[in-house]
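Box S2. Input/output pair 1.
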Amino acid sequence: MLGLLALALLAASPSTDPAAPESAAEKASDAQDKVICKRFLETGSLVKGYRSCKTKREWERERENLRARGPGSNSCRDAANGGAGCSP
């Protein structure tokens, strides 16, 4: 009888879950790999546009690249000042 009770307790005891909570480093890398989609509207249109999907890491890299170029880089204003021409 005591043996059956021991077996019942072993069967009912919670086992370690292989999908245990991840470490903080793994969660951070997963957050950077999350895909984010953004919708961009064509200038002058309320409905015509396109959708771009990138990971969070790619969006951040693109934002840093734009900031590194500085304000007014490759703009039409530069064309008037002898800079590179305006791209159509």
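Box S3. Input/output pair 2.
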Amino acid sequence: MTDAQDTAADSSLRTTGGTPPDDAGSSVAGAPIPLLEPREGIPPVVVDEAALARVIAAFAAGSGPVAVDAERASGYRYGQRAYLVQLRREGAGTALIDPVACPDLSGLGEALAGVEWVLHAATQDLPCLREIGMTPSSLFDTELAGRLAGFPRVGLGAMVEGVLGFVLEKGHSAVDWSTRPLPEPWLRYAALDVELLVDLRDALEKELDRQGKLEWARQEFDAIASAPPAEPRKDPWRRTSGMHKVRRRRQLGVVRELWETRDRIAQKRDVSPGKVLSDTAIVEAALALPPNVHALAGLNGYGHRMGRRQLEQWQAAVDRAKALPDAALPQPGQPVTGPPPPRAWADKDPAAAARLSAARAAVSTLAEQLTMPQENLIAPDTVRRLCWEPPKVVDAETVGTALVGYGARPWQVEQVTPVLVAALSA
């Protein structure tokens, strides 16, 4: 048992019943222990510069990795901004920071420069943390570590229970974190999310080392930490749910116009776009091409709860799309920058289809042997691109070079090159 776990298991960490877990990397003896309260209680939320300065000083003086988490208000607010930031570090305790009241946390980010950040599902939180000035130079992702180590369930609650023997209360994960003031039960939940994150990191590091995968994990973590911010998605309106039903260009134009109108309104009101108008309603109007407000009101999603002014707003968007010249209408599908969809390979290039089938089977078998998901062993898109346009001479050097060009990490190249060479040569 680690020192931190020992502390967590004693009377200063309030739990109900049960016994402390065995060493973090081993199986847990007895029933899991409900984790009900942070060991130092719920810290006050930081809402002013003076309190933030004290937190920065405390965390700069702390030791070891820092656990970091962020809560967003997906489904309630526009965008993916952070509405609460939680941190915990040895010697500093736990801090809860309100990034609405303190929107610039670059000073905290600078204080933690060179410190390893421990996050769960890092790619989800890094964009909103970057917006407020917090970007790690190195990190440990406990969810990704769990995937590489072969855990069947990698949610934070499942990992903490299976590895450390504590049960986290997860009832507030989908609440509206933009609520002010935040209720105490929510703050307790938020503090507990970072309570044992460093302990989980230490246990997973031992398990990855035992399996010979620790260096693989480090390469993955470095890739996440060094990745540039994602580029804005081209034509985001094409991701409207139900788009597969929309075939004609005029209908596509209606989807685009309604989506963009909805997005402007949602951004102005700072609410989730789905609360303004559902994807289902957008597709319904695109398929029906209603001639007037009365016809629009009869469609799903535009019922009696919607006022006349709102109906006119949506009908105006439909009318704008209907008035567009043909040349201004969107084309079906998106520009193809890579291979065609695999379902079309058999007709377009039967040899490529055979290569892909062999490569997928080989990767699947290897992933099972290594006890990890196929997509973590090698990106499916990388396999498709390699099979669609293989090197003219297929050998370990050319395949390895191609994999590197597609962004594969060294450990992935080492593991999959032999099986892909065999599949491409069959």
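Caption for Box S3: The two ends are 50 Å apart (CA to CA). The beta strands are 33-35, 45-46, 63-72, 82-90, 93-97, 116-119, 138-141, 166-168.
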